[in-house]
């Protein structure tokens, strides 16, 4: 008869970091300060972004220096540094970072002990094994959410708007799609989502390595706004596009953090 124990051991060691649905802790006890800073304040920020920011005219004011009214174009649209480095280069860098998280998780799989009959392995890959998978999934889901929303969006990029030399009308955030218009697929800012996805480092390590978590938060904000600003200089996005990207990425990461904690509780280990 076939001995099923090695096969069962193979699969049990292959996916130790993926929690069973009945082990997910939906009743995590978190302090009020957590809910205030991570949920209440972002909700308030979202309301301000939705109902107050559109009346400030900040989008037009911030993008105006990069628009040439005489040429009816954004001169930096095809700038080599903004396109090759800030756009393509940083986008590829964020992909590499996410794949590194997946690689660290694979490196820490117990299957290698099973295959090579060895218990040797990197200590950090074992201790933070679950976090690495969590980070990879978080970066994929958060950026994918932005991509889906962009695909469903009717808003056009600044360089396509008639006010900036294009052909498409400007549509308010909650406006109706005009007859004869062309769907823009340009909201929220997709490129900035790669940088903001690094905020996953904050959620992934806040329960185990708070200093690294705070550094990840700053890094995510820095890269997110830098990547978004580069696109704004090219005429690809308004600042509001990038602010909404930051808000959505934060909320997606928060939801994942709550339903699938990056650090296993003692009952899940």
Q: Helical element count?
A: 11
Shape: globular
Structural class computed from helices and strand pairing: mainly alpha
Poorly predicted parts: 6-26
Task: Give Rg in angstroms.
Answer: 22 Å
Order of helical and strand elements: HHHHHHHHHHH
- Tell me the major beta sheet: none
User: What is the percent of helical residues?
Assistant: 55-70%
Counted beta strands: 0
Kindly report the average pLDDT value: 87
| Distance from first to last alpha carbon | 33 Å
Kindly estimate the percentage of residues that lie in beta strands according to DSSP: under 5%
Which characteristics define this entry?
single chain; 269 residues; mainly alpha; globular
Question: Could you characterize what this model shows?
Answer:
With 269 residues, the protein is mainly α. It has a domain at 80-172 and 181-264. Helix content is 59%, strand content 0%. It contains eleven helices and no strands. The two termini are 33 Å apart. The model is unreliable at 6-26 (pLDDT under 50).
Tell me briefly what this model is:
The chain is mainly alpha-helical and 269 residues long. The chain contains eleven helices and no strands.
Helix/strand layout:
Layout: H1 5-14, H2 32-51, H3 58-63, H4 80-107, H5 111-116, H6 123-127, H7 129-152, H8 190-196, H9 200-205, H10 210-234, H11 239-259
Helix pairs in contact: 2-11, 4-7, 4-10, 7-11, 8-10, 8-11, 10-11
